Amino acid sequence: MLQGFHTEGVIEAGCDEAGRGCLAGPVFAAAVILPQGFQHPLLRDSKKMTASMREEAKALIQEIAVSWAVGYADPEEIDRINILNASFLAMHRAIAQLTPVPENLLIDGNRFKPFRKIPFYCIVKGDGAYASIAAASILAKTGRDEYMLDQSRYFPLYGWVQNKGYPTAAHREAIRQYGLSPLHRKSFRLLPDGVQGELF
């Protein structure tokens, strides 16, 4: 079972992102305040769950969470400020929606940009250690997948139903064949060297 809290007696929010390594679409982030000490076997690292398991866990989280929120940074912002800063921006946008205001932030990963002077702890592989971070990873992942599935109706050539914007061989081939969509991240290495430059 994952740990139910980092610091006893304070309001903690777990935070995680989804989509940092994608070639297209926003980076999503979620922030979740769970009842302190809450644990459930459904909560785990979202990358180790099937889509149906994530949907079941999403419903549980939204039902029992004290507060939860999702934010994102779009491809233009990613290209302008880089993917790391865009991930922080998406987290900040999620945290800003929480009520009550958290007293601690548990961040998945090893870096974070402070938000409104709220104390924070960076925890590598935190989505496999703390329930609130796992919950955030699930909401970020399901939120982003839902967005990319919706956008695939408008840009069906890139296989986002299958790859959700990640750099599969089929996705890269579609970029080579059809060029870029408005949702592609121009600052990323979309194609191998020698080909990428021909797109821009």
Describe this structure in words.
There is one protein chain. The chain is α/β, with parallel strands linked by helices and 200 residues long. It has one domain (12-151): Ribonuclease H-like superfamily/Ribonuclease H (Nucleotidyltransferase, domain 5, 2-Layer Sandwich). The chain is 34% helix and 15% strand. The chain has 6 helices and 5 strands. The protein has a 5-stranded mixed sheet with strand order 3-2-1-4-5. The radius of gyration is 17 Å and the shape is globular.
Supply the helix-strand structural class. alpha/beta
CATH H-tier superfamily: Ribonuclease H-like superfamily/Ribonuclease H
Gyration radius (Cα, Å) is 17 Å
Question: Can you list the strand order of the major beta sheet?
Answer: 3-2-1-4-5
Morphology call: globular
Looking at the structure, the CATH topology is Nucleotidyltransferase, domain 5
Order of helices and strands: EEHEHHEEHHH
Supply the key terms.
globular, 34% helix, 200 residues, 15% strand, 6 helices, Nucleotidyltransferase, domain 5, alpha/beta, five-stranded mixed beta sheet
Short characterization:
Helices cover 34% and strands 15% of the residues.
How are the elements arranged and paired?
Layout: E1 12-18, E2 27-33, H1 51-64, E3 67-73, H2 75-81, H3 83-95, E4 104-108, E5 120-123, H4 131-151, H5 160-163, H6 169-178
Parallel strand pairs: 1-4, 4-5
Antiparallel strand pairs: 1-2, 2-3
Helix pairs in contact: 1-4, 2-3
